[in-house]
Design brief:
alpha+beta, about 150 residues, four-stranded antiparallel sheet, 5 helices
Length: about 150
């Protein structure tokens, strides 16, 4: 069920906001992938909410024509037609260095970079991929390496 998936993803979120997100997801076609990004509070402290929203706006608009968005202005739920489209947007943002501070190195590499102040250690948020399966259920999971740029 979409509501239970959203309650898992948005743990400490107001019920009314979750209800709004559920309405947004009701419009999606079965098996269309949805990228959901929840903010990392440590990243927000380091860079600010404005910087966070700028990154979310990139995910909402990258590779779309002007004035089009894939998030219905939610800045957290991004609808794609194909899973490949989702990863093309990720690659485009990451490889073109459009949001360099959004992506971090793998936690397994932190010790190797402990003296390098220019290395991003925390990601902008947690990425979840959700797919609607039938009218009443969904399949979803977190993708912990979505915002990782170097992996050991």
């Amino acid at each position: 069920m979409l509501a239970s998936a959203l309650k898992t993803i948005f743990l400490d979120t107001d019920k009314n906001l979750i209800s709004n997100y559920e309405k947004q997801l009701c419009d999606m076609d079965e098996l269309d992938p949805v990228l959901i990004i929840t903010p990392n509070r440590l990243w927000i402290i380091q860079y600010s909410w404005d910087a966070y929203y700028a990154v979310m706006d990139l995910f909402a608009t990258h590779n779309l024509t002007q004035n089009r968005r894939r998030d219905k202005d939610s800045r957290c739920i991004f609808h794609f037609r194909k899973i490949d489209d989702l990863f093309q947007v990720r690659r485009g943002i990451k490889n073109n260095n459009l949001a360099p501070n959004a992506f971090c190195i793998s936690p397994g590499l932190h010790a190797d970079y402990q003296n390098n102040l220019n290395v991003q250690l925390v990601p902008v948020g947690m990425a979840w991929i959700l797919m609607k399966v039938g009218s009443l259920s969904s399949d979803f999971g977190s993708m912990r390496t979505f915002f990782t740029s170097k992996v050991r």
